[in-house]
Amino acid sequence: MSIGVPIKLLHEAQGHVVTLELNNGTVYRGKLSEAEDNMNVQLREITVTARDGRVSQLDQVYIRGSHVRFFIVPDMLKNAPIAQARGGRARAFRGGPRGNRGRSQ
Questions:
Q1: For 34-89, what is each residue's pLDDT tens digit?
Q2: Which of 11, 32, 64, 75 gets the most CB atoms within 10 Å of its CB?
Q3: What is the pLDDT of residue 28?
């Protein structure tokens, strides 16, 4: 079984600053040092914002992927090869075989 595009994009984000929100509403922002295929991540130099607004600093943290609600990765990754390949393929199918059925041209 191969990994999907979101996982590949997460691997591309290694070494960059990412933001992630946990299911309990806590927000972590730090440098992504490692990402696993099951979305477990290790962050360094983290700023943690609790649901009540309290902010704290951590040197490093390991977060289980099933506890993550979403990731925010840097905008520069939209130029990554994996994002380019996906975007091009999606555009190729737009208006494809479904349109103009039964009409002669």
A1: 999 999 999 999 999 999 999 999 999 999 999 999 999 988 777 777 766 655 44
A2: 32
A3: 98
Instruction: For residue 55, give the nearest of 93, 79, 25, 26 by alpha carbon.
Output: 26
pTM: 0.75
Asked if 15 contacts 30 with a C-beta cutoff of 8 angstroms, the reply is no
Residues 49-75 as b/e (b if ≥16 CB within 10 A, e otherwise) read beeeeeeeeeeeeebebeebeebebee
> Cβ distance 56 to 63 under 8 Å?
no
Q: Whose structure tokens read 């070494």?
A: 15
- No. of helices (H) and no. of strands (E), the chain: 2, 5
Cα→Cα distances 70→1, 22, 53, Å: 23, 7, 19
